[in-house]
Design goal:
Blueprint (H helix, E strand, L loop, with lengths): L1 E4 L11 E3 L6 E3 L6 H16 L3 H7 L7 H10 L6 E3 L2 E2 L5 H18 L1 E6 L2 E6 H4 L2 E2 L1 H10 L6 H13 L2 E3 L3 E2 L2 H15 L7 E4 L8 E4 L4 E3 L2 H13 L6 E2 L4 E3 L5 H6 L2 E9 L9 H14 L2 E3 L4 E3 H5 L10 E6 L3 E6 L4 H12 L5 E5 L29 E4 L5 E8 L4 E8 L6 E13 L5 E9 L3 E5 L4 E12 L2 E13 L5 E7 L9
Parallel strand pairs: 1-7, 4-9, 6-14, 26-30
Antiparallel strand pairs: 2-3, 4-5, 6-7, 8-10, 11-12, 13-15, 16-24, 17-23, 18-22, 19-20, 21-22, 23-24, 25-28, 27-30, 28-29
């Protein structure tokens, strides 16, 4: 059996040096781990004896309260009535101080003997009195015993004295653990023995051509009932069972959700599709390869309840060495250049619209539009991602639904489509959402400018920046009930600035080579 002492510290170690008046020498007193208990008890005694009598009478629930002066005389100068026994010690005729001096050493020895064991499985935890910082109700019991036969009405007092004469009266002083400390110790035991339940879970089947799940049953767990163990230790102490061996049974903990719940919360919530077959540049092999790679990485992603999803963080850095070929991407807000991972904004845009169609329980925390509208989404409904994992523009959201979200992503290279399905807690029956962007203003670009480049040969000309119109767009989420439009929710306004065109002409030596792409 693995025996463990779970105390937070070893017993207090201290040494007091006092003057020996008879020999003039200085002697080191023997180490006493319960000296702190002794000091606490006597400090408490001084406070209680000087306190108002109401403290004791409330405890004893006397119906008749003597004067405070008389009470003080009993506690300060009185002696115990004949027949009074405290923890087996007959204190008849003793003063309160004398009784304390007689009983306290017994309590000290009792505290030293405390050794409560807690057995769980093959492990044993031991708690000593020092470990639990035990305290005692000695001062209360001393006062209670002193007032017995004196603190009530004449009839009640007479009856009490008769009881003393015939049978005597036994009073018990008990030791109590520090509840706060003991809770911490019990929590440590729980941390060692608890086996939490395993929830049933679904795993997206990424090898299926259509959304599908593999389901796994939950498993019961077994945990320590910490409150019950605290009560058991406290009760054992109160009963004077200071060498108790407790064997708490672990409580079965069932998963919080059933398989039926899981299957009900892995239903289609929304879907969105975009196309990339409109132009040869959209069908660029490298661009399509990047879309495929991003879709493959995203497929099967699970976003837990309350979790924030970060697109850049999930997809990772886009570099040529990491398998992201060069494809056209917008740079400087006015032109296309070849860049690693070019084209994956089609994936983020498709995901963005699918998320909006999940309803308001999906909280979009970060999203940016392109420098100019994308051909595969309504104006105002695109979502660009740039930069690295820790910087740049990303698409981020928080799952505020009541169940995990599962993302399925498919790139169909033959049909030139990018499709996202989001599964999880279903929308109310019959309800679906669609997004749309409405252009509210078209902004004409400034007149195209011409720029001279002396490093290009005379007569060479290139359209270096294409002139583009700017737009303002209102974005809406439309709610449908059983396929019929029910209402429209305004989400936001997006603005795309106009891009001024630029033509660059060569003014250099005609023999200079022409620039290459």
């Amino acid at each position: 059996m693995d025996t463990r002492n779970r105390s937070r510290s070893s017993r207090p170690v201290s040494a007091d040096t006092s003057a020996d008046m008879q020999t003039g020498s200085r002697r080191r007193k023997k180490k006493n781990p319960y000296r702190a208990l002794n000091r606490r008890l006597f400090a408490l005694a001084a406070i209680l004896i000087a306190a108002l009598a109401a403290v004791f009478f409330l405890r004893l629930r006397y119906t008749h309260i003597p004067s405070e002066k008389k009470l003080r005389s009993y506690l300060d100068e009185g002696t115990y009535l004949s027949g009074i026994v405290i923890n087996g010690k007959n204190v008849s005729g003793m003063t309160l101080d004398e009784a304390r001096s007689a009983i306290f050493p017994m309590l000290e020895e009792t505290a030293k003997s405390v050794n409560i064991g807690v057995s769980c499985g093959s492990s044993l935890w031991l708690f000593t009195g020092a470990d639990m910082k035990v305290s005692t109700d000695l001062e209360y019991v001393l006062a209670e015993a002193m007032l017995f036969g004196r603190g009530d009405t004449a009839a009640v007092n007479s009856k009490a004295k008769k009881e003393l004469k015939e049978n005597g009266k036994e009073f018990a002083v008990t030791l109590s653990p520090d509840a706060t400390l003991l809770k911490e110790e019990i929590a440590d035991i729980a941390a060692a023995v608890d086996t939490p339940a395993v929830e049933p879970f679904a795993e997206a089947n990424i090898w299926s051509a259509t959304p599908a799940f593999n389901y796994y049953e939950g498993v019961d767990g077994h945990v320590l009932d910490q409150e019950a163990l605290l009560t058991a230790i406290t009760d054992a102490m109160a009963a004077g069972n200071y060498q108790a061996l407790l064997k708490p049974e672990l409580v079965t903990q069932a998963p919080s959700h059933s398989m039926d719940w899981l299957k009900e919360n892995t239903k289609l919530r929304s879907t969105w599709q975009t196309e990339f077959g409109g132009s040869s540049s959209s069908r660029n092999a490298n661009r399509v390869g990047n879309i495929q790679k991003a879709a493959t990485l995203l497929n099967g992603c699970v976003v837990q309840v309350g979790e924030e999803f970060n697109f850049n963080g999930f997809i990772g850095p886009r570099t040529e060495s990491g398998g992201w070929p060069l494809a056209p991407g917008i740079v400087n807000g006015n032109t296309y250049e070849m860049q690693a991972g070019g084209g994956i904004c089609q994936v983020s845009t498709t995901l963005y619209n699918a998320l909006l169609c999940c309803g308001s329980e999906i909280e979009i925390t970060e999203r940016y539009h392109h420098s100019w509208p994308s051909s595969y989404a309504d104006i105002g409904l695109d979502s660009t991602v740039t930069g690295t994992v820790d910087s740049g523009k990303s698409l981020n959201f928080i799952n505020n639904t009541g169940a995990p979200l599962y993302i399925f992503a498919y790139c169909d290279q033959s049909a030139y489509t990018m499709t996202i399905y989001i599964y999880g807690e279903p929308l109310p029956e019959g309800i679906t959402y669609k997004t749309r962007g409405e252009v509210t203003e078209t902004i004409e670009p400034a007149e195209t400018v011409t720029e001279e480049n002396p490093e290009w040969p005379m007569g060479y000309k290139e359209n270096t920046v294409t002139s583009r119109k700017g737009y303002k767009s209102d974005v809406y989420r439309d709610k449908y009930i059983n396929g019929t439009l029910d209402s429209s929710e305004f989400l936001y306004e997006d603005s795309y600035r106009a891009v001024q065109g630029k033509i660059t002409i060569g003014t250099g030596d005609p023999s200079l080579p022409k620039p290459t792409a």
